[in-house]
Design brief:
Layout: H1 19-38, E1 42-43, E2 49-51, H2 52-55, E3 71-73, E4 79-82, H3 87-97, E5 105-114, E6 126-135, H4 141-156, E7 164-170, H5 171-180, H6 189-199, H7 202-214, E8 217-219, E9 225-227, H8 233-240, H9 248-254, H10 259-277, E10 285-287, E11 301-312, E12 318-329, E13 344-350, H11 351-360, E14 373-375, H12 383-395, E15 400-402, H13 409-418, E16 423-426, H14 429-433, E17 436-441, H15 442-449, H16 455-461, E18 465-469, H17 473-483
Parallel strand pairs: 1-5, 7-10, 14-15, 14-16
Antiparallel strand pairs: 2-4, 3-4, 5-6, 6-13, 7-11, 8-9, 11-12, 12-13, 16-17, 17-18
Helix pairs in contact: 1-4, 4-10, 5-10, 6-7, 9-10
Catalytic activity: tRNA(His) + L-histidine + ATP = L-histidyl-tRNA(His) + AMP + diphosphate + H(+)
Domain Aminoacyl-transfer RNA synthetases class-II family profile: 1-372
Subunit structure: Homodimer.
Amino acid sequence: MSAGITEARLPRGFVDRTPDEIRASEAMMRVIRETYERYGFEPVETPLVEFTDALGKFLPDQDRPNEGVFSFQDDDEQWLSLRYDLTAPLARLFAENHERLPKPYRSYRAGWVFRNEKPGPGRFRQFMQFDADTVGAASVAADAEMCMMMADTLEALGIPRGQYVVRVNNRKVLDGAMEAAGLAAPEQAAVRLNAMRALDKFDKFGLEGVALLLGPGRRDESGDFTKGCGLDAGQIELLLAVLDGKGLESLSGVLAASPRGQEGVAELVEIGALIRAAGYRDDRIRIDTSVVRGLEYYTGPVYEAELLFETKNDDGQPVRFGSVGGGGRYDGLVGRFLKENVPATGFSIGVSRLTAALKALGKLSSADARGPVVVLVMDRSAIASYQTMVAELRKAGIRAEMYLGSSGMKPQMKYADRRGAPIVVIEGSNEREAHEVQLKDLALGKEMSKDISDNEIWRASRPAQVTVKRADLVAEVKRMLGAAGGRTE
């Protein structure tokens, strides 16, 4: 590398976004916004940077100020961090403005979040989330509404019934199972956490695999051994009852000795009644006590939006697409800033993942949107004439640009092709004297050229190129764009 030349390189865990990707995600988010607003949620925006202690979850110490988040000190030597999600900033915003905000407070937000973690396949340090939250509502009716809104959002995006499901559980059920299994003591926190993680492997390993992880441990196909929780047979049987899907009535009997577990079951029964009353059936929203989310975060109902159709993994094997978002009740987060406890519930959509799912289903076009009409500059001394044409096209609502480089006609045509231009406008000195312009339909020209193999025929036919009066420029461009079935704006 030559001295003084900086290497162009992208940091690991970050990506550059193409026009195609940006347009696809923005089209998707427009639909999401419309659905949220139909439910009465209002947009709000918080900054990328918060005081680190306000984020809470990854509070840095003096030795490791960047644990989990990207952090820095300001001029006052206070620690600031890039937000790692959109929920903690919402909690701060509500607490700071709670006296003037309506309660319950319903809002949605979309934006970038950052994780200072080791990147890997599908794991990025910067990614976009789209959240909706209700703060100040203790009733599980707020949780039921979140689930209904998730289901409606997926259908509004074109995902048909049978290809998605919103699964609902309750953290109190899981806590109750731990309590009934004799694992509620403070000194058993580590065992509870590992047991929760084992239960979370149900989709991957099934009941038998989870039983091994709860007991002596599990050896996988490669021979690697994962140490188990060391629970006895009775404890394992009780915890597996949460996963076996025999229904809430059966689970209520299993958790009869746990008041917290009984409360969780009752809340799930109420959520089920509310969603059925609103016309949602099990094919859309399903009570499923095998859902394990937010081991140290959620305090009540938890829910997950899962796509059921198959795609292929990196090895070419068919796999279920899986989760594209989820959330739950987090009654303890906002109260960190206030003297009283503030109930809250919400969910988050992974924008990139949902965009990928919609593309896989053919619900979002992967092709670049049509580029602008390009006015070629054939005569530098007449540049004002070309600028006038561009201004007229734009005024008529047509995307248009004048070529601003210094190359000749052939490179200009190549430029227009790379820009995805549907039409180029050509005005040389002869056309100007005749008060005419040439319009070349690039897309039609490509299509017609497939059937032309002789240069003489090509020159004689002048495919997809027309000459029109200068005064008819805008009208003819509109006609050609309409004939191609494309939009002008």
